[in-house]
Amino acid sequence: MVEGTPDFLLKPLRVWLVHAVTLRDLIDLKRSLELRLWRNDIFQMGGVTGTAIMDVLLEGEELFEAVDAALDLHNWLLASDVEPDSHQWWVWMARDLMMILDEAHSEWEVNHLVNGLVRRVDPTAAQAVAAVVKDASADASAHLSKAWDKAYGFRPDPGDAYSEAVKAVEAAVIPVTIPRSGKPTLGTALKHLEDTESQWSLVIDDKTGQPTPARVVIGLIDLLWHGQRNRHAGGPTTKPISQETAEAAVHAAVTLVQWFTSGAIRKAP
To answer: Which residues fall within 8 angstroms of residue 82, CB to CB, at 6 or more apart?
Structure first.
């Protein structure tokens, strides 16, 4: 895994930005980056008409910050109702960036929503998340993607990552357990599962060869629900969510969403 922007990655990223940042959106991107980096010397005009180049001092984390901001700024171009030429241009740009980062084995890659960068993780884990996001409901997928990006994004937010992980699990669990509940939460679904534990099982057999009882699933949901210690500010057990906690919560959410989406959790026969 390559960290930072060594020479072989520095030039391709700067060239990508030359083509990604046009005069039309330079002002918006410049303002965004000045606020992010607390600098006002982000860009200098280059010799290519209608484009801007990065200041030669912008490298490493600040260069990735610029790439992250450009992805966020242009993401609207991926919508289906955008003018075709503009849409296709940004599809090509996004693919080109993905190829640059992949071939350089950069520590960063483009996220699922193509609106920012995320830290590269074990490929097997990343593929598993992508598969769950693809197969889950639209609501669960959206929250799970946000949870992943908040946990591994360029500017991680552990609290938001944990919150989105809980919302993703809610979106997968509630339709299976309490679909007609008036104001359902993950806590409500957890209580229902606890009260009806004997009615549920996991498709994985236990050591006796029988379907695993629901207590295993209930325990994981309970862990995720009560581990969100920043939910009730000011309480005696309140504390900030750490980066490690957020990452663990997101991976737990991936498992739970997959189980409830695939039917691995079912009513006991």
So the answer is: 76
